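Many introductory courses stop at the sequence. We go one step further.
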Amino acid sequence: MPRSLRSRRIKGLCLAAVALLAVGALARQTRVETRKLPMTDGTLLGTDVHLPQGPGPFPVIVMRTPYSKDASSGAGKAAAARGYAVVIQDTRGRFGSQGANLPFEADGWWEGRTDGADTLAWVAKQPWCNGKIGTMGGSAVGITQLLAAGTGTPHITSQYIQVATPRIFNDAAFPGGILRKNLVEGWLTSALFAPEAHALWKGHPIYSDFWRKRDLTLRFGKTRAPAVHMGGWYDIFCQGTIDAFTGMQASGGVGARGRQRLVMGPWTHGILQNKAGELGYRNGSAPPNRAGDPFAWFDWTLKGRRTPMTEAPAVTYYTMGDAFDASAPGNVWRTASTWPPAGGRVRNWYLTQGRALSPQRPAAGSLSYAYDPKSPVPTVGGPQLLIPAGPMEQSRVERRPDVLVFTSEPLAAPLEVTGRVRAHLMASSDCPDTDFIVRLCDVYPDGRSYNVCEGGLRARFRKSLSREALMTPGKAERLGIDLWSTSIVFNRGHRIRLQVTSSSDPGLDPNPNTGEPFRSSPRTRVARNTLLLGGVKASYLALPEMGTAGR
């Protein structure tokens, strides 16, 4: 990857929160100490401490980053100018730190390497720390926060976690059992991790003990602190952000349970702007209650000052709408006490042999298509990292013969969908394994089709991500596919569309259809995949609909 693009990713997307810290010339009123901080096993980690002027002690903000502490020095000085001591550390094996250059391998609670907890314990003992410690950062820096919280350390007072996930396997590496090829290979390469990192992640294509011990969702009870979880509907970790919030809110330990906040906007990965992909959203970059400002959170939780976030509801979210009609419902920020918000219901929309999408169960039928791994469907928008992301017009995808398209009648009234979207397909293949990719789209009156959310499933993992079970060729089975979550109003006159296909390259690794172990052979087969439609073997889309779209 060109150095300029890598630099933008390091200083931009994956550290987007630091842009919120700039306070200009005040940053000069600080002092900086650099040291090598010893971990429990003796490994030395490069660490910068930015201290405000004055005698202290101070509340502290900690950022542990694989993207270079030097790239965040301006943010550290700016936060120090606001009265916080700031500790910025290169994670193990990165830049100024010793150790193996592997992602997240010492940031959690496994194998005796607990760098996050060790660092926080050291901070708590320093004379310039007043005992109030916050953690902050986005993407990988957000994941290091979640991993530190999972150690059960008592030294976190609050967290501001942006675009991160508690489950690396499910959300980052192999969602639905399919390798996120562009994200995994592109990120590991562009961030300059050791070549062994590829073998480490891709060498575990099944949800095994390797991934379980890195899974915070199994340890929510260890967390002890309130946190803000900020994400975007088109973010690579959209569902992970929501699941971290709901898990810690309902099942967190004392100090965490019932004290979480969720902020979801119309954003791609770490980009808090009004525009995502090819669509713009009114006031999309400005969540209310200063929820997009970490200092509205830390000034309250670390300094005890009342801010707009003090009395804010637990959930702040943006409901998208028609991007071209200023009078259309949606395109508005909302708040709620829970996620998903109260008042919704799930309605099934059935796929028909006539390629319609209907709330009425149709007569029995079927449709088939041929999927060739050597000619995969291209990835166009969606939750991507190193390729164009967000809502993008889908015509060139939907014209392909290996993409089945099911479309509703024009809506007589606006319809709001808010919550988790799932598809339930009754499907078969003439191969022992294949993939099914499903995408929800909003079709405008002029025919333009924009992706809303999506998901996929490798058929061998239809029963469990923890074990493989090859399909019996020709035998139809029920496949549940998670499209993650969204909030959008389909405007009057729009149509709801569902794409069903078997590939999305380079976003997802194409399935060779052979049933052989992951990437064990260059062989491929063309699969003939069939959906059963209607009757007792209906395929359908389950939409979480809200009662009043124009609210």
